[in-house]
């Protein structure tokens, strides 16, 4: 450990040499981001990648105090997770469980549906990837999840293997025609307890069609409020959804606005890369505006660092800066850049089923666990 920006403070759920095939040509980290003081004067110097030998010695220099149990011990106590395990130890346990085909520990459900808006007006930062993989991971932890695809590209629908050809009943009908979510949601074939309202290309026209509609920014909220399985345990019972994840398009238009009005928690994926923080100021200003005028309950509860490359100081620098600004809102688990994660959608799968033992899958599982546990503490 050579400096204060050690990647070790982030769990990436494990790493494999075969996953380390995305060298990043790092130049300098942008000095002046648009996020207030964030970034100014704190640039991370031009950095080279660590050699494999460096990476290995870093990893072996400070071994975690690991109470990992053997596979035989785990087999004797399949549900016996310890909450005080380090993330690395837990990832190791999760790996053993995954490889042995033993279900993950089922976590307790929230007493009320938690509605997350996954948004960042930057494209390609991992919104969709995080939505679908967290959703699948949450179901593995015993949660019931509804994904709402609000991006006309329909990438979340693709990854979750849900039909979304033009004309398929979708979020377009939800927003424009006032169709009910009960009629639109489809079960994900690969994950029990996961339902999806798909998006089709029709949604691309919705922003214009909604212009003349009264309370056009409230359409999604109305649909969620009307759902018989969304709400508190008292009001809607045990069949309720525990999590709703809304995958937003890369813009701050009417679609994203509908999500911000409907949700209570915002989940912002931030790519641990150049310009990661650029535009965040605008996003946070939008959140403030929505909170002031349309949805006082909205809070940025969760930041997840995506495509994290532990070999570069650039990634560690971005991570440190994000953490300085957002503090505990940032999940301890960062999602590593992983080929398996990017391959999974082309098989109509999440990485959670495509390669459950891969670092990407284990990281999303750990991130989902953090989200559940944090919610139960607040
Ligand atoms: N952890 C990761 N490792 C490797 N590739 C990733 C990872 N997360 C996302 N990607 C890839 O990056 C691209 C953009 O991700 P996506 O989730 O579609 O972003 P967004 O929804 O914000 O536009 C996709 O090709 C996706 O497969
Ligand atoms: Mg997307």
Please explain how this structure is put together.
There is one protein chain. The chain is built from 16 helices and 7 strands. With 378 residues, the protein is of the alpha/beta class. The protein has one domain: P-loop containing nucleotide triphosphate hydrolases (Rossmann fold). Strands 3-4-2-5-1-6-7 form a 7-stranded mixed beta sheet, sandwiched between helices. Residues 1-82 have low confidence and may be disordered. The structure holds adenosine-5'-diphosphate and magnesium ion (MG). Adenosine-5'-diphosphate binds at residues 123-129, 155, 250, 306-307, 335, 337-338, 341-342, 360.
The number of E-state strands comes to 7
Q: Low-confidence parts, pLDDT < 50 over ≥5 residues?
A: 1-82
Which class in CATH terms? Alpha Beta
Number of helices: 16
- Unique bound compounds: adenosine-5'-diphosphate, magnesium ion
What is the chain-wise order of helices and strands?
Answer: HHHEHEHHHEEHHHEHEHEHHHH
Distance between the termini: 33 Å
CATH superfamily: P-loop containing nucleotide triphosphate hydrolases
Q: Classify the secondary structure makeup into a structural class.
A: alpha/beta
> Average pLDDT across residues?
82
Estimated radius of gyration: 20 Å
Please summarize the sheet with the most strands. 7 strands, mixed
Give the helix proportion (percent range): 25-40%
CATH topology: Rossmann fold
Number of spatially distinct domains: 1
Strand content: 5-15%
What CATH architecture would you give? 3-Layer(aba) Sandwich
Give the CA-based shape: globular
Sheet with the most strands: spatial strand order: 3-4-2-5-1-6-7
